[in-house]
Amino acid sequence: MFTGIIDAVGTIAAIQRHGKGARLEIAVGDWDLSDVKLGDSIATDGVCLTVVALKGDRYCADLSQETLDRTGYAHAKVGSRVNLEKAMLPTTRFGGHIVSGHVDGLGTVLSRTSSGEAVEFWLRAPDELARYIAEKGSITVNGISLTVNEVRNSDFRLTIIPHTLAMTSLDKLGAGGVVNLEVDLLARYLERLLQARSGAGNLTWGKLAELGFGMAPSGTMRSS
Q1: Which positions of the chain have pLDDT values less than 50?
Q2: Cα–Cα distance measured from residue 90 to residue 186, given in angstroms and rounded to the nearest whole number
Q3: What local confidence, expressed as pLDDT, does residue 83 receive?
Q4: Could you tell me where the beta strands, DSSP code E, fall in the chain?
Q5: Dist CA 97 CA 75 (whole Å)
Q6: CB-based contacts of 216, cutoff 8 Å, min separation 6
Q7: Can you give the pLDDT at residue 196?
Q8: How many CB atoms lie within 10 A of CB 30?
Q9: What is the CATH architecture assignment of 8-86?
Q10: Beta bridge partners of 42
Q11: Residue-wise over 200-218: b if at least 16 C-beta within 10 A, else e?
């Protein structure tokens, strides 16, 4: 489990293709790996990967065909920068939101514009993920816990402050870029539980009303 608060930015040092999978070697520079052991998990650009080898300032992780199919690693290149986060501890400050490291799909950067000292990105999510993205909700982009500031159908806007740009790989991200997306885990479970209760398919506002949920005057959800 992770929080989406990035510890460091690493670099893909090597990619070894084998059969339907691959092995990544990630160079981490001066990031401390002394507390990492074989079998530990490291979120690498938002993908929970298991450490299978340690080589000084590098670690290796294997990618299955499933991981290659669902993430941007299908097009990974040596030299690409990746966001890194070690698995959270019971004593870890919960600075972001609940992140599992299980990528739901790929998003596309539509635009990047300056907004004062910050940068605004518009991204497009796959249609099947759009219903989980809410204004002022959380989303994980390449492993980074970010706040959604606006939603238009399958498109959403992010405002990135200078510190986040400096500490992650977002500083090099531009229009046309492809990113790993993980939607809010709680939204997925809520939908599944309500589907099981109602026998319904996709949730709608009408279905929620039938189940006893309505909109409070403030616009927040309430149970009747």
Answers
A1: 216-224
A2: 20
A3: 98
A4: 8-18, 21-27, 41-44, 47-55, 58-63, 81-86, 105-115, 118-124, 138-141, 144-152, 155-160, 178-182, 213-215, 221-223
A5: 28
A6: 222
A7: 72
A8: 7
A9: Beta Barrel (2.40)
A10: 49, 86
A11: eeebeeeebeeeeeeeeee
CA distances from 44 to 8, 71, 75, 214 (A): 10, 11, 15, 39
Judged by phi (left if over 0) then psi (alpha if -120 to 50, else beta), residue 132 lies in alpha
The pLDDT, as a whole number, for residue 194 is 76
3-state secondary structure at position 82: strand
Q: How many residues does the chain have?
A: 224
State the Cα–Cα distance between residues 123 and 75, nearest whole angstrom. 19
- Same CATH fold assignment for domains 8-86 and 105-185: yes
For residue 129, give the 3-state DSSP assignment. Answer: helix
Tokens 């299978």 appear where? 52
| Domains in the chain: boundaries | 8-86, 105-185, 188-223
CA dihedral 44, 47, 50, 54 (to 10 degrees): -10
Tokens of 42: 């490291």
Place of tokens 């910050």: 118
Instruction: Give strand pairing partners of 86.
Output: 42
Q: What is the pTM of this model?
A: 0.84
Amino acid at 68: L
Q: What is the CATH number of domain 105-185?
A: 2.40.30.20
**Structure-token pair, residue 140:** 């994980």
User: What is the CB-side half-sphere exposure of residue 126 using CA atoms within 13 A?
Assistant: 14
